[in-house]
DNA sequence: CTGAAAGCGCTTACAG
DNA sequence: CTGAAAGCGCTTACAG
């Protein structure tokens, strides 16, 4: 039950705990411990399967070798996939991950931050909610933001994707496929990533000389549930029958969109073109398959954890702000077998 | 930077750290601290926004208020959803969650266990791999297993689903819909949950007087990747054209199965009936939609964490082994619009 | 080359 | 009714 401590080793080796600590922390050379003693200690430690008590070490050094990961929703495939990469890479570097979901709720996010703070995590990877910047500023530990950032906070570290370019590419692709009345379905969220997707959409339409007015921009309250989104989308589509393609600004909107379109008896691709932000198993397997702009999930995860660990080790040299490109994955929802013809 | 400690409060209140500790831990009454002192301390603590250092407390008490969650794959929707519920409920009880994915790899699981152990987690929720029972037995802390258990370890705590009943129901449903040559696609895993699903399949066929021989049981190596599964399934279907329905034993097999069936140009439901274990957004949204036996994810998560916390509080009274029922969700893949007719 | 001692921030048995 | 002291298991500045 009771673990092996440094004392046990010291006793068995006939030396002081100090010496054991030096040897076990690889400071034998530096502290000029004799080869002989050093070897003896190492042998005993491995015989006893000694594992340092991280709590004691943390209390003394102030480092817990733990990082806090705050995502919007761990059950969302994008965040779950990033979390997996983060955990994997952290593990390789000797760090463990404490996680939590904000549901994009400010209060919940603050609660998570507070708990992680007094758990003394060494650093944070945070998917911020709105207005979380003040709270984050009081953390006094390395923080890397993901998915979104605060435009007015200049010196923060983050890994995000090029939302503008992604949306722009997606919408341009639709236009090039012959769709002429393209709408965006997005949320009311005032967060930067959503703003940029909207801007990309508007810009693409303008560049192609197409109308980008209010009636092709549908904003849904971001705190609706799945059935709520589906119902709202259905309603919007019903009252805007002249639309011939939709750009969905998030994966869950895209998923709800599929349900809505189908419930109206419309055929995706031919009746109504569609592209969604963010790839998902569903989009690949759906029939017809759904075109999307995919995030480089693996790379996002790797960059996040490495940027944070570099900060923790004070070896930071690489750029502090990374904007990754998105990849347009063309599928049937925008390139129907029967070409879409404007009537 | 430096946090507020109990000493700071003691100083400001003009009492000893001991007294502060008693008051803050709600032992004022028990220790007969005067109302006056008590109130003063509480006021100062909240003014200073005192947060106890969990490391120091943990070192002293041996409790870290942390639980370890080991899943097979946090990126798999089933595990991600369970993880979310677990984290949520743990949070309500003042616990944080450290997590990791085993990929069903024994060595990786052992590594995770070791790290969590010397991080002094108070208890574990574990999706065990094969042969992990010895390792788990040496943990000397409360453990609740999920998704599977060790049949030869009688006194373990677990929350699982009734795999036999689920498979039995799924296959019976197929037979009742008129499918006559039903196969199972499963993995080579020797784990109990997979065995039970196989038994449910065999039993259902036997009960209905249908053949349940080797040629309707296809076992795939469980460590293949997605493309690997898809390829193997495609091959199996090609060489067994007489089959008219398939029961897929896991959600990822079902997903790969959809790809395989479609790549062969077969129509799900009419050409080939299908039911998958475990629900998934894809199954609901696929066209045709896919019948499945769904796990009660929410309830699994809640039961897991509550069982563990009861163990931690030594208030355990409820049953230690919970087997939850599965729900058959009938969809188009087994009830085609054009009825399946045996020729 | 090695060790005694202090201290991280708590809790708790003991004393008065 | 309250406090001094020990101790959880480490690390590290200091001494010799």
UniProtKB/TrEMBL annotation, chains A, B:
Gene3D superfamilies: 3.40.50.2300, lambda repressor-like DNA-binding domains. Residues 4-61 form the HTH lacI-type domain. InterPro entries: Cro/C1-type_HTH, HTH_LacI, LacI/GalR-like_sensor, Lambda_DNA-bd_dom_sf, Peripla_BP_I. Keywords: DNA-binding, Transcription, Transcription regulation. Residues 2-55 form the HTH cro/C1-type domain. SMART domains: HTH_LACI. GO terms for molecular function: DNA-binding transcription factor activity; transcription cis-regulatory region binding. PANTHER family: HTH-TYPE TRANSCRIPTIONAL REGULATOR GALS, LACI-RELATED TRANSCRIPTIONAL REPRESSOR. This is LacI family DNA-binding transcriptional regulator. It comes from Chitinophaga tropicalis.
């Amino acid at each position: 039950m009771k673990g092996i401590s440094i004392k046990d080793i010291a006793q068995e080796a006939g030396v002081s705990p100090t010496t054991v600590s030096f040897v076990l922390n690889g400071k034998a050379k530096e502290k000029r411990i004799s080869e002989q003693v050093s070897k003896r200690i190492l042998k005993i430690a491995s015989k006893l399967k000694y594992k340092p008590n991280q709590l004691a070490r943390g209390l003394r050094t102030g480092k817990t070798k733990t990082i806090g990961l705050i995502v919007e929703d761990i059950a969302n495939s994008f965040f779950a996939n990033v979390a997996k990469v983060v955990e994997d890479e952290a593990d390789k570097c000797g760090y463990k991950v404490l996680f939590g979901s904000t549901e994009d709720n400010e209060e919940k996010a603050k609660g998570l931050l507070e708990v992680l703070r007094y758990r003394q995590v060494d650093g944070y990877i945070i998917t911020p909610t709105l207005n979380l910047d003040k709270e984050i500023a009081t953390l006094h530990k390395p923080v890397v933001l993901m998915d979104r950032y605060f435009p007015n906070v200049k010196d923060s570290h983050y890994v995000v994707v090029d939302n503008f370019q992604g949306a722009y590419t997606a919408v341009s692709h639709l236009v090039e496929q012959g769709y002429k009345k393209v709408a965006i379905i997005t949320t009311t969220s005032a967060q930067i990533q959503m703003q940029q997707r909207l801007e990309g959409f508007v810009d693409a339409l303008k560049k192609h000389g197409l109308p980008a007015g209010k009636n092709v921009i549908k904003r849904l309250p971001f705190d609706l549930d799945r059935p709520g989104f589906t119902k709202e989308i259905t309603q919007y589509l019903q009252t805007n029958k002249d639309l011939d393609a939709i750009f969905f600004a998030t994966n869950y909107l895209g998923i709800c969109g599929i349900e809505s379109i189908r419930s109206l008896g419309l055929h995706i691709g031919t009746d109504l073109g569609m592209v969604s932000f963010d790839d998902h198993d569903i989009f690949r397997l759906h029939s017809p398959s759904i075109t999307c702009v995919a995030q480089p999930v693996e790379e996002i995860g790797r960059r996040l954890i490495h940027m944070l660990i570099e900060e923790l080790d004070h070896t930071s040299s690489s750029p502090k702000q990374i904007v990754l490109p998105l990849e347009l994955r063309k599928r049937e929802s925008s390139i129907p077998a029967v070409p879409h013809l404007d009537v």
